[in-house]
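Here we describe the complex-level prediction in full. Unlike the single-chain runs in Section 2.1, the two entities below were treated as one system.
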Amino acid sequence: MAQEASSSTSSKTISLKTGDGEIFEIEASAAKQMKTVQRLIDDLGDDITIPLHNVFSKELPKIIEYYKKDITGEITKDFEAEFVKDLNDDEVKVLFLAANYLDANKLFEFLSQNIADRLESKSVEYVRKYFGVENDFTPEEESKLREERAWSFRGIKEDE
Amino acid sequence: MAMLLRKLRDSASSLKQRSTTSSSSSSSSSSRSHPSPPLPLPLGSFDSLPTELLLKIIRLLDPKQVAKLCIVCKSWRSLVSDNQLWAYFLQTYQPLHFDSILFSEINLTSGYPLPIFVNQTPRVSFKQVYGQRERVPPAVIIDGGSGYCKFGWNKDERPLGRTATFLEFGNVETPIYTRLRHFFGTVYGRMKVKPSSQPVVVSLPLCHYDDTNSAKASRHQLKEAICSALFDMNVPSVCALNQATLALFAANQTSGIVVNIGFQVTSVVPILNGKVMRKIGVEVVGLGALKLTGFLREQMQQSNIYFESLYTVRTLKEKLCYVAYDYEAELLKDTHASFEAVEGKFTLSKERFQTGEILFQPRLAGMRAMSLHHAIALCMDHCHSAELAGGSDWFKTIVLSGGSACLPGLAERLEKELHSLRPPYMSNGIRVIPPPHGADTAWFGAKLIGSLSTFPAPWCTTKKQFRQNKLNRIW
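The structure predicted for the assembly as a whole is:
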């Protein structure tokens, strides 16, 4: 797809500093896709290193990788599949929360679908572990809930 | 319902009163940029996310999976109980139209008498409705008439099959036990299912309309015969409702005048709160689908259009005919149109709208019957003079049903004629609704009943109850 019409920022790079102190460079056009970053640029100027307190050096490179592909219009189903292939559930979670913090809509939508795909057909115990919550139902309450929802267990083969 | 949604939204936003600068992994105390009330049990590692975003992910899941999420923990249960979420699932995953589900779940869940809502519509828990509707067992739905019968399943969008009752069984609107047994036996055979396996919703034909004791006895006799036949076939429970009432429900109404253009006659049936108002009177016009097809056949013969089978005439009626808004003006227009039938290509012109015109001018067919719009206006007069508790507007909703009522232009023409026949105080607010599900409208109404979250309980009579003579007499 065509590049954005040339403006003075199209070839500029922006410096981002993660919560754990590392610095990464991204193109200004990629930064535009992350609304939080763009807002900080508007406030602080594009010459300053933008501080991102809530994003860390583990996940930011992955996000930058995604938007690098996005600005060249090369995001395909294959790329997206490859992008999440080796990520475990925790890593996807962290990326998802970072995408939310950065207000990076496209990545956020993509990761929403991926998380939904990972949760589909999983057992209740798996979901508890995934979100890190404790079961606060009594055994009687839980069995009543399961009985009422017998229809939702029908015909689904649960993965553990 | 708006208030409930607002309450849910408010409680949800109190969950999200955290700045996004808090740590992204789960933790109990995290620095907040502004104080907020102590939170209920957390949703876990996604706690820092606003509820709307979490719900966005949840919407991408299958409703079955979402129902399971209620079991994860208490906070998750209250999160996924969001009413709008389940309204969304109902709209997306159920084949029925959402407005029909809403209508039936609000008005029909307790059976007769129908509830009357004065000012506000009650709140619906979509989550409960979704779950309960999933649990409704399969049921057979049969809408039989003297002309055609449609049969199928409550879970399907349309009938599984049809049969021409007049051809196969003769007139099933007579309480002849053996004929009814043969009829129902054939239907169950075509559906490839045992009568004893599931409840059945069956429509009762519109006949013996008068408010006399003998007519009442005849209606009762027919209903008894139908139910006897079914129970003798070991059907576990039966819901038998008047065909006009079913058509009304299919149009998402509980009150109004149903105009059913049947096989042999057309009935104009006033219904208030789901009950046929026989004391007001059912008007009957001796004109039906058979007469319309017959008239078209005569016109075609007069125009020297050769055909072999009456079936062709019927097909042309369905494909080419319509009702003119202004008959005289239409005669001056060029109205040629063609259709490729099994027998070959046929071209009709004024026959196309003259056929439907006999409903408005029966003398065109050499009949001395009352015209349809006069019959409806008469019924409206009777409804108006009855001054019932339903107010003065309930009879201004006119629902058309029957295959022939699907003629394009019929509803508009009827509205026009009714406005010219009656002064504004009567005609203001008249709405004529064309058959909402085509020729299957009454079948669809029966299906609505058979799909209710409370089905079969409030609507069906069991075999035991029937034998003990506890037949529901309202129909």
